[in-house]
Amino acid sequence: MDTSCNVKRENENQTIEDLKAELHPKSNVKKVIGIVSGKGGVGKSLVTSMLAVSMKNKDYKTAILDADITGPSIPKMFGLKGHVVGNEQEIKPAKSKEGIDIMSINLLLEKDTDPVIWRGPIIGNIVKQFWTDVIWEDIDYMFIDMPPGTGDVPLTAFQSLDIDGIVIVTSPQELVSMIVSKAVTMADKMNIPILGLVENMAYFKCSKCDNEHKIFGESDIKKIAAKHNIQSIARLPIEPKIASACDNGEIETIDPLWLNPIIPSLKLDKSKQTKGDGKMTQKIAIASEKDFVSGHFGHCEGFSIYDIKEGEIDKKEFVPNPGHKPGFLPNFLNEQGVNIIISGGMGQSAINIFNEKGIQVITGATGNVNDVIKDYLEGNLRSTGSVCRKHQHAGECENH
Ligand SMILES: Nc1ncnc2c1ncn2[C@@H]1O[C@H](COP(=O)(O)OP(=O)(O)OP(=O)(O)O)[C@@H](O)[C@H]1O
C-alpha cells in the first residue's frame, strides 16, 4: 500500500545547484577548497591558514573565507585586528601581512571577544553574504574554514557555496573513522570530491632524542583513508611553535611543509587554470656527494636535480658542480629553474641570494638523496636552518 501523500513538497525537485549563491560580479575565484572537521578544536582553522600560506608561498593569489561564525579564529592567527571596509553593495576583505585576503565575522564585530550566539539560518546567511557581497579579486585559491561538524550549519554552507573539493582534518583523540565516514557521506551527497585527509597532533617530536612519540597512541589513519579511497594524507605534529604562532598572530612565519603531501591534490582544473598553469611542477636540487646529501653546499660534487610533477618524481638528473665562486651557484641553480635547494650546510650569503630569488632553502638534511626527496614529498623534511660559519668550512659553503 502506498502510504505517501500526493502533495509535492515545495523545493522537492530543486537541485543542490539551484541553491548555490553567485559570487559578486566583481569577484573572480578559480578554486574553492572547504576545510572540515568533526568537531571544534582539532586544528581546522590551523590547517586552513597553513594551506593558504602554502599556496601563497607558491605565488598564488590566496584568500580565506572564515565560515566558522561561532568560533572564528582566523583573524587571530594572522594577527588581524581592524575592521573591514564596506558599504551596502560591497565589502573589501582584510589583507594579511603577506597579502592573503581574509573575511571573518570577527572583522565586523565591535570587539573580537563578543560572542556570536545566532542560530543556524542567520549563520547560514552570513556565510552566504561573505560569498556574495565580498569582493574576492582574482583569487586563485580560496580556502573556507567551514563550521565544525556535519550538521545543518556546514550543510547549508556546502549547499550555497561553489566548493570544488574538501580537506578533512582529524586528530587522534576523535573517533576518526566515524568522523571521516560522516564527512565522506556529506561530500558524496553534494558531489564534492575529498582532496585530502590531515591528521593533526599525530605525534610529538622530541628535540632531545629526535624520536616521534605518539602521545595518543598509534593511528589507523592510512587504513581509514584507503577504505574511503582518499589518496593524500598529511600528518602534523604537536608543535609548541605552532601553538605560539597561532596565539601571537604569526601563522605566516610557520613553514607549512608538513602539508606537502596534499598540495598536489589541490591543483587548479584545466578549465579554470590561467596564470597558475604549471605551478604544480617543482624543480628540487639536492647538493650531493654521489648519492648522499653534501654537508657543504659550495664544495659539493654536484646537484641531484628532481623534476616533480603533481607530487611525484618525473625526472632525476645529476648536474656536476660548475665551480664555487661566491654568489655564482645560487644564480646558476636559479637559471636551471630550481625552486627548492636542499643541503646539509650552507653559508648565510648563499641563503640570502636564494631567498632574494624566491628559492626555498632547506638545510640540515643528511643521508641518501632518494630518501631525502621522499621525506620532502611526504612532508617529513624540516629545515634546521643550519648555517655554516666561516671558521667551520672557509669558502666551502659559499659563505663569503
Ligand atoms: N599541531 C598543533 N600543535 C600545537 N598546537 C596546535 C596544533 N593544532 C592546533 N593547535 C592549537 O589548538 C588551537 C585550536 O586550533 P584551531 O583553531 O585550528 O582548531 P579548530 O578545529 O579550527 O577549532 P574551532 O572550530 O573551535 O575554531 C590553535 O589555536 C593552536 O593553539
Give a verbal description of the structure.
It is a single chain. This protein is an alpha/beta fold and 400 residues long. The protein folds into two domains: 24-266, P-loop containing nucleotide triphosphate hydrolases (Rossmann fold), CATH 3.40.50.300; 281-388, Nucleotidyltransferase, domain 5. Helix content is 25%, strand content 21%. The chain contains eleven helices and 18 strands. The protein has helices at 16-19, 44-57, 74-77, 120-132, 152-160, 176-190, 221-227, 240-247, 328-335, 348-356, 369-377, and strands at residues 29-37, 62-66, 94-95, 101-103, 139-145, 165-170, 194-199, 204-205, 212-213, 233-235, 281-289, 292-293, 302-309, 312-320, 340-343, 346-347, 360-363, 387-388. The strands form four sheets. An eight-stranded mixed sheet has the order 3-4-2-5-1-6-7-10, with helices on both faces. Strands 11, 12, 13, 14, 15 and 17 form a six-stranded mixed sheet that branches. Strand 8 (204-205) and strand 9 (212-213) form a beta hairpin. The longest helix is centred in the middle third of the chain and has 15 residues, at 176-190. The radius of gyration is 23 Å and the shape is globular. The N and C termini lie far apart (89 Å). Adenosine-5'-triphosphate is lined by residues 37, 40-46, 68, 71, 73, 148, 200-201, 236, 238-239, 242-243, 246-247. Residues 37, 40-46, 68, 71, 73, 148, 200-201, 236, 238-239, 242-243, 246-247 line the site of adenosine-5'-triphosphate. This is Iron-sulfur cluster carrier protein. ATP binds at residues 38-45.
